């Protein structure tokens, strides 16, 4: 069985002034919503992962409005919410146990950000033995400043993170391909 993991699709990750000057893929949340709706229609398992930062300055700290889920992917109908405070959706949570208790062997991962929690959770899902699919246009990244001050665009960071995960840790697909497969 296949489950959808919606990772950190939260209001705080709309704040480019905190995480970087630019963000790739402005359509990521809309694509996450399309995928979530398809999983709901098929009555396939969905898990909402919420980052609850321990840094009081972070927009994802539980005391901040940014900790809330993005309106496009609000949990409903008893969909499980897994709260975490590290990059991996599996560390310090019962996500692995919940997936295994439902005989889930395959996971589809969407959310934010590609270079942080998506990458870490994708690697862990694969290492834990789940067949892992990552949806490239249902994720996004922020720009970065390198160790010697060089600037890397959000698109470059996104594409590099996907390249590092491709084949070894996950099959990479886009939203249209996944939705077509779910319809068949």
From TrEMBL:
InterPro entries: Isochorismatase-like_dom, Isochorismatase-like_hydrls, Isochorismatase-like_sf. This is Cysteine hydrolase. Residues 2-176 form the Isochorismatase-like domain. Keywords: Hydrolase. The keyword rRNA-binding does not apply. It comes from the Bacteria. Gene3D superfamilies: Isochorismatase-like. Residues 53-79 are annotated as: Disordered. GO terms for molecular function: hydrolase activity.
